[in-house]
């Protein structure tokens, strides 16, 4: 997992070509002009889901992880917390769904706070739970980039 401010994006652009394209997209996009919803950048190899929602209190929610995609989550407006832990062989509570590329875990986790202008990158070994409130539910606008690990 990587957590940083968009001003430091150049530190991470050599990790994967799709991550570089996602970070460049963040730097060049006026999100006020982007409609909510899914936007293809390179078909199923790289796309972004721009969404707005209220953060939620944790109450029996499960953490997720992916196999086919890396998540790059960028906070456009607002602040949220995310639960994170490493996948170290734990058995999922919900087995892998290949169609939607996720599995769910019921594990202990640490909390990170992600503010406006920050991004988090979650790799397949990063089990995560986004959208958590920092207190009372608050409005967040977030761009979630899905970066295919192996281009097809």
Automatic annotation (TrEMBL):
Coiled coil: none
Entry's Gene Ontology cellular component terms: cytosol
SUPFAM superfamilies assigned to the protein according to its UniProt record, in alphabetical order: Clavaminate synthase-like (SSF51197)
Highest taxon, organism lineage: Bacteria
NCBIfam families per the UniProt record, alphabetical: YhcH/YjgK/YiaL family protein
Name of this chain's protein: DUF386 domain-containing protein
